[in-house]
Structures are given as structure tokens and as C-alpha cells.
Amino acid sequence: MIETSTTPNLNFNSISNLEESEMTEFSEADIDKFYDALKPSLNKLIKQPTDKAIKNILNFSRSSSN
Amino acid sequence: MDFQNKTDQELVHLYLKGKEAALSQLITKHKSRIYTSIYLLVKDEYLAEDIFQDTFIKVIKTLRAGKYNEEGKFLPWVLRIGHNLVIDHFRREKRNPTITNSDGFDIFDVLGIHDDSMEEKMIKEQTHKDLKYLIHLLPSEQKEVLIMRHYGELSFKEIADLTDVSINTALGRMRYALNNLRKMMVSKELTLKIG
């Protein structure tokens, strides 16, 4: 889980220099550990399409098979 | 007929033989991965839903035309179609994905954080939004690999094939994505708590 120590006051527009040429600052093991810790938070971003979208697809399939 | 234990390949065959329920099962099985992968690229629920539908309409047309290559796996193939439709969309719009504040429904809202205080709940909600923003700040090729790997659960070989790069490049981009996410989180005082 991700926690914030203070009320976030983020200026995301100031973040830059994320291209691949930048030097890596964390070890492979650190990154693996970080990814493992990040997975639950990433999973919480999972979203579902609406039932209506699925119904539309199935209706298209049925109508196009006739 | 019980479709739940069928492989994707079997479901495709059953669908082509006229079993509409096989398509329903394929959608049910993969909808979260496909929709989330599209949503995180376009960051707009309504647009993501349109592209999700267009993706499956293309899947249906391709299957019916007998053009599906059975040697490939179903999910990577569908994700590739969705990915290409996202690229087509941005080419049409002649712009890059932008960060918007149009978030509406969030699965967190209904999963129930009932025992949290209002403050804790607000922090969690803010943190999830922050993570989404940070993902969107990644360079597009790193964001794509992260999404395909984590949400699409594609192998690095599949990602490499899909994005037309070497496996090492795909692997490297995942590393850079994670590295950059971590750096941003550190600089913005977002910390990970394991457990």
C-alpha cells in the first residue's frame, strides 16, 4: 500500500527528465522489491468496462451473425 | 455447456461454430485487463469504453473473416488491436495523451473502505490519483510496457513483438518505468509500505 506522510501538495508539471538516457539510481534488487510493493497499488487501479459496453459488443456479434 | 473451464482457443472455436456464449466468456475473462490497459493509455473512461467496444468489434470481424492466427495467444492479440486503436485515435486527434481531471467512477469508491476514518479515506483516494498521475507522466514507451506487463500480463517477448522492439529493450523500458516511478514517489514524498 502507498501512504503519504503529509497532505500531498504535488506539482506534477515540474517532473521531467524521465527519458531512458537518465542514469539509473536504484539497484536491480531495489527495483524488484519496489515493483513487488507497488503491485497491490497498481492492481487497485484496475477498472471494468460497463455492462452496457459488453452488451453492445454481444448485440453486434448477434446481429452480424444473421 | 460449461464454458468456464475452456481455453481461449477452445472458446474461439466454439464461437466460430455459433456459440455466442463463448464470446461472452472470452469478454468476461479478459475485460478488466483489456479495459484497464486502454483506460490507462487514454485516461478517459468514455473514450476507453468506446475503444474497448471497437476493439471487440474488430476482434469479431477478424474472427468471422477467418483471419485470426491460431498460433498467437488470444489476449496479446486483442491487446494489440486495442493498442493500435489507441494509437489511431491519437493520430486522428493529432495530439498526445493528456492528463485530465475527468475521473468519475473509481473502483475504490465501491470496494468499501468502511473502517477508515475520513482522513485516511481521503489520503487513500488522493494517493490513488497520484499514482495514476505518476504513471501518466512516464514517457509513453515506458508507460506502455508497464501497462502491458502489469495489466495485460504479457511476457516481455509478447511486449517486444507487439511494440516491435527487442526483448532487452522491452525489459529495459520496464526497469526505467519502475525506476522513474520510484524516483517521482520519493521526490513527492509518496512512500511504499510493504504488507
Automatic annotation (TrEMBL), chain A:
Superkingdom of origin: Bacteria
Protein name: Uncharacterized protein
Automatic annotation (TrEMBL), chain B:
One Gene Ontology biological process: DNA-templated transcription initiation
GO MF: DNA binding; sigma factor activity
One protein family per Pfam: Sigma70_r4_2
Keywords: DNA-binding, Sigma factor, Transcription, Transcription regulation
Keyword GTP-binding in annotation: no
InterPro entries assigned: RNA_pol_sigma-70-like, RNA_pol_sigma-70_dom, RNA_pol_sigma70_r2, RNA_pol_sigma70_r4_t2, RNA_pol_sigma_r2, RNA_pol_sigma_r3/r4-like, WH-like_DNA-bd_sf
Matches recorded under Gene3D superfamilies: 1.10.1740.10, Winged helix-like DNA-binding domain superfamily/Winged helix DNA-binding domain (1.10.10.10)
Domain RNA polymerase sigma-70 region stretches: 26-95
Domain RNA polymerase sigma factor 70 region 4 type, residue spans: 131-169
Matches recorded under NCBIfam families: sigma70-ECF
Family: Belongs to the sigma-70 factor family. ECF subfamily.
Name of the protein in its database record: RNA polymerase subunit sigma-24
